[in-house]
Design a protein that fits this description.
The protein has 297 residues and is mainly α. The protein has 2 domains: 85 residues, DNA polymerase, domain 1; 177 residues, hpI Integrase, Chain A. The protein has 13 helices and 3 strands. Strands 1-2-3 form a 3-stranded antiparallel sheet. Strand 2 and strand 3 form a beta hairpin. It is globular and about 60 Å long.
C-alpha cells in the first residue's frame, strides 16, 4: 500500500469516522509526511522500526527536539501505524517499543493580577479609531482573562453561544470535541453586553459573536495575533493567549475555586491536568499552609 494513499485514507477516517478536529488531523498529516520525506518511504511497509527509530534519533540529535516535540511526533505516528495494523498494511506497530523521553515538569507561565488588570486598562483607555474596536478588543481580552477560553474556542463563538440572560457561554466542540457550559460573572457579563450592543449597531449578518470591523465575517486568528502584538507593544507585557488561560486558572484557585470545578470550567478531560495550577499558585499554597493547626499558637 502506498504510504501517501494510506495517509489520505487515515485522515478521512479520522475526520468522518472518529470526528477528530482539523487541527489534530493536520498534525497527523504533517507528522507522517515529515517521516515519509526523511526516510524516503514510498510504501507503508517501508516504515520499519529501525527507520522510525532513526527518524527520532535524527530529531533529537540533529534538530534538538524538545521532549514535548518528540512526544507529540511519537503519539501521532503511533495512532497512524495502529490504524495501519488494523487495516492489514503492517503486521506490527513500529513505534510500540520506542520509549518517550522524560518530560520536564515546568510550571505554567502566567501573569500577575496587576499585569492582567493593566492589560485590561490599556485596551479600555486606548484611543482606537472606532468605538466598536475598543469594545470588541476589550471584550475579547476580558473573555480570555475572566472565562479562560482557548483561542480556538473564542474564535468559534456564535451569537447564540453567549447567553447573557443566563450568564453563560456555551462552548461547542472544544478540545477533544467536548461541549461545555462556562458560567460567567457580572463583570464579564456587562463587558460582553456592551460589546454586543455595539455589534448590533453595525448590522453584521454573519453569525460569529466576535466580528471584523470592516468586513462581514468573524474575527480571525490573524486579527487576534495582531491584537496580541499590539497589546504587548502598548502595555510592555509579554504574553500569549495561552498565558492568559493560565492566568485565569491560577487567579480562580487563589480566589477559592475548588480544583474539580476549575477542571470542568477549563474543559480538562483529566483532573490531573488541572492540578499543575496548584503548584503554580504560591498564594494558594501559602493560604493552605496557614491552616496548619500549630500556626494557631
Amino acid at each position: 500500500m502506498e504510504l501517501s494513499s494510506a495517509l489520505n485514507d487515515f485522515c478521512n477516517y479520522s475526520n468522518y469516522v472518529r470526528g477528530y478536529s482539523k487541527k489534530t488531523i493536520d498534525r497527523y498529516r504533517a507528522t507522517v509526511t515529515h517521516l515519509q520525506r526523511h526516510i524516503q518511504a514510498q510504501e507503508v511497509g517501508d516504515c520499519s522500526e529501525f527507520k522510525v527509530r532513526e527518524f527520532f534519533y535524527y530529531g533529537r540529535q540533529e534538530k534538538h527536539w524538545a521532549p514535548t516535540t518528540f512526544i507529540t511526533y511519537l503519539n501521532s505516528l503511533a495512532v497512524f501505524f495502529r490504524w495501519c495494523v488494523g487495516q492489514g498494511y503492517l503486521t506490527s506497530n513500529p513505534t510500540t517499543d520506542i520509549e518517550m523521553p522524560r518530560k520536564a515538569k515546568k510550571l505554567p507561565s502566567r501573569l500577575t493580577k496587576q499585569e492582567a488588570l493593566h492589560l485590561l486598562d490599556v485596551v479600555s483607555n486606548y484611543p482606537f479609531p472606532h468605538a466598536f474596536q475598543r469594545y470588541r478588543n476589550y471584550a475579547i481580552l476580558a473573555t480570555f482573562i475572566l472565562a479562560g477560553l482557548r483561542k480556538s474556542e473564542l474564535l468559534q463563538l456564535k451569537m447564540p453561544d453567549v447567553d447573557l440572560a443566563n450568564m453563560a457561554i456555551f462552548v461547542h466542540q472544544g478540545k477533544g470535541n467536548k461541549d461545555r457550559i462556562i458560567p460567567i460573572g457580572p463583570t464579564l457579563g456587562r463587558i460582553l453586553n456592551r460589546y454586543r450592543e455595539q455589534r448590533i449597531r453595525l448590522n453584521k449578518a454573519c453569525s460569529a459573536f466576535f466580528v471584523s470591523m470592516h468586513r462581514d465575517m468573524g474575527f480571525t486568528e490573524a486579527g487576534l495575533k495582531r491584537l496580541v502584538d499590539f497589546l504587548k507593544d502598548k502595555s510592555g507585557i509579554q504574553f500569549s493567549i495561552h498565558k492568559l488561560r493560565h492566568t485565569f486558572a491560577t487567579i480562580m484557585l487563589e480566589g477559592g475555586c475548588d480544583i474539580f470545578s476549575l477542571s470542568k470550567i477549563l474543559g480538562h478531560s483529566d483532573i490531573k491536568t488541572t492540578t499543575i495550577y496548584l503548584a503554580a499558585s504560591p498564594e494558594h499554597l501559602r493560604a493552605q499552609m496557614l491552616k496548619h493547626p500549630f500556626d494557631a499558637f
